[in-house]
Write a structure and sequence with these properties.
Shape: globular
Strand order of the largest sheet: 3-2-1-4-5
Distance between the termini: 52 Å
Largest sheet: 5 strands, parallel
Helix content: 25-40%
Number of strands: 8
Number of helices: 6
Structural class: alpha/beta
Radius of gyration: 24 Å
């Protein structure tokens, strides 16, 4: 309100976008970037995971009914098809998957300075501090770990917690390692990985 201004939208599509989607959420992680790319005015080459062939087949049938091939084309197959696609020049690459293939995608994209979005799985830590309600925290960590059968990049992979004194003496870590508190106390209240 202090400066005279005017807002406007100026679509600037990249051009042809390669979307490489994973097996663990094959519908969501194929359609979500597809919708975004099309809404921005791009054409799309979809490469779903070879590990979800039935989902890929159904998506292919649906997309053929909805879009002409000059707007959306799906390529199925495995590593050979991935390599063939990565050897082509695209205007944008969107990849969801693991770090090893992500590095390969980035290496190929660098040849043409192609913009890349990498959505990579990783080691998602849970850090539990001394203010946590342990029962609720434990339920939430277990829920996150087993969400989608544990097959997602954001599920907890590590838990770090302080070494709390155990009610019977000793520490929670000592109890977990030795089965009883043993009358020990904790002199180092630092945070350590409790599970990996």
């Amino acid at each position: 309100a202090h400066f005279a201004a005017k807002s406007f939208q100026s679509p600037s599509p990249y051009g042809t976008v390669l979307i490489m989607s994973p097996w663990n959420y094959p519908v969501l992680l194929t359609l979500e970037p597809l919708i975004d790319a099309l809404a921005a005015g791009n054409t799309v080459i979809l490469k779903p995971s070879a590990y979800a062939p039935h989902t890929s087949q159904i998506l292919s049938q649906l997309l053929k009914k909805c879009y002409p091939p000059e707007y959306v084309t799906m390529i199925t197959g495995g590593r050979e098809e991935n390599q063939a696609l990565l050897n082509q020049r695209f205007d944008k690459i969107f990849f969801t998957g693991g770090k090893t293939v992500g590095k390969e995608v980035l290496r190929h994209a660098a040849e043409y300075l192609t913009p890349v979005t990498l959505e990579l799985g990783g080691k998602s830590p849970c850090i539990v501090d001394s203010t946590a309600k342990i029962s609720l925290t434990a339920r939430r960590i277990v829920f996150g770990k087993y969400l989608n059968c544990g097959q997602m990049g954001g599920c907890p992979r590590r838990t770090a917690a302080p070494l709390w004194p155990h009610p019977a003496g000793g520490s929670a870590r000592h109890t977990a390692e030795h089965g009883n508190a043993g009358g020990r106390t904790v002199s180092d209240p630092g945070v350590r990985p409790a599970a990996d």
